[in-house]
From TrEMBL:
The keyword Amino-acid biosynthesis does not apply. It comes from the Bacteria. It comes from Streptomyces bluensis. The lineage of its organism: Bacteria, Bacillati, Actinomycetota, Actinomycetes, Kitasatosporales. It is a multi-pass membrane protein. This is Carbohydrate ABC transporter permease. SUPFAM superfamilies: MetI-like. Its main location: membrane.
Amino acid sequence: MRTRRTARAGQYLALLAYLLFLAFPFLWLLSTAFKPPRELGSLHPTWIPKDPTLANFRQAFDEQPLLDALLNSLVAAVGAAVVAVLIATPMAYVIARRRTLLARAATGWVVVSQAFPFVLVIIPLFLVLKNLRLIDSVPGLIMVYVVWALPFALWMLVGYVRALPPELEEAAAVDGAGRARTLVSVTAPLLAPGIVATALFAFVTAWNEFFFALVLLKSPEKQTLPVVLTHFIGDEGAADLGPLAAAAFLATLPSLVIFAVIQKRITGGMLAGAVKS
């Protein structure tokens, strides 16, 4: 009994240490965002600001178009998440239910495509978008984000579809439902946790993406939030630390809010009672 309690205490301590490790960057960012310049240059920094101020937030909004960048990032991330899920859901259903050579080849290609670095695909993507006249446009950036997020989104949804009992689809077929009707009326509602998790992955990937946005967007009014954050760093590499921390803190809030709102939907058991034994 004592050994079991010691092991459990060790597990809780390890979990607490891991949580602190994950939370440290965000907590330090939050602390820095509210510190005045005098405390930012202190040789003995403290966790809690001695004289908290909102001047860093006001300066960040005065120096850079954060609201426009926030809106551009939101449109690009939401658009990429919605389109990626709409494309990946029927594809995942076909790959999971039809165990053919083509389906296995598609799954293998999904895995291989994740190994491609950004630099390898940026030139072909740039040429394609140039021919489509989508350079320096948010719709063109959404198209790139969809292409980049689709393989992993498809891989995620294939696993969710394979976890669903095929008896539900067989029952729908007996009732006269076709493949499309079964996917919409039976499979899609049961895939809700997987669809939400996949959409969240696509959203966060697009929200945090920097390289494609830097290369494809040239107009200042069309740039996304990660690109605008680099403007707080001077030509000589010196960062305006207070406004940068304030802007970065605001940039992390949407992802945190979305995780807090939908985390129960992701982990909920949607299949409870779906199949009678």
